[in-house]
């Protein structure tokens, strides 16, 4: 009987994580509309355009090779910048 309770608790915790809090699943990031910004120089204006296009709540801009968080956030857009040219080389959500 205690196995059932643990399984149920785990299922409820998973449901709360997926459906609650940040709203990441309800209105999450969509990277495809922001892909048009690939190859462009990174600026704060580009960051704002990328955030608006992707509907991301958060934006994390990183230079290639920098450490990044392993935490998945469905409402975050990650922008990867070439450190030598300051050009956007990748965009993804998570």
| Total DSSP E strands | 3
- The low-pLDDT segments are 1-5, 12-26
Proportion of residues in extended strands:
15-25%
Helix content: 25-40%
What is the alpha-carbon Rg in Å? Answer: 17 Å
Number of helices: 2
Average pLDDT over all residues: 80
The biggest beta sheet reads: 3 strands, mixed
Counting copies of identical and different chains, the oligomeric state is single chain
Shape: globular
The main sheet orders its strands as: 1-2-3
SSE string, helices as H and strands as E? HHEEE
How far the N terminus sits from the C terminus, by CA atoms, comes to: 37 Å
The helix-and-strand class reads alpha+beta
Describe the protein's architecture and organization.
The protein has 94 residues and is α+β, with helices and mostly antiparallel strands. Helix content is 31%, strand content 19%. The protein contains 2 helices and 3 strands, in the order ααβββ. Strands 1-2-3 form a 3-stranded mixed beta sheet, covered by helices on one side. Strand 2 (76-81) and strand 3 (88-93) form a beta hairpin. The N and C termini lie far apart (37 Å).
Topology overview:
Elements: H1 2-19, H2 44-54, E1 58-63, E2 76-81, E3 88-93
Parallel strand pairs: 1-2
Antiparallel strand pairs: 2-3
């Amino acid at each position: 009987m205690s196995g059932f309770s643990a399984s149920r608790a785990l299922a409820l915790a998973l449901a709360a994580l997926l459906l609650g809090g940040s709203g990441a699943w309800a209105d999450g990031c969509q990277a495809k509309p922001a892909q048009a910004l690939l190859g462009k120089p990174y600026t704060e204006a580009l960051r704002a355009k990328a955030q608006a296009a992707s509907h991301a709540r958060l934006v994390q801009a990183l230079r290639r090779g920098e450490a990044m968080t392993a935490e998945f956030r469905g409402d975050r857009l990650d922008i990867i910048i070439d450190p030598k040219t300051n050009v956007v080389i990748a965009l993804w959500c998570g």
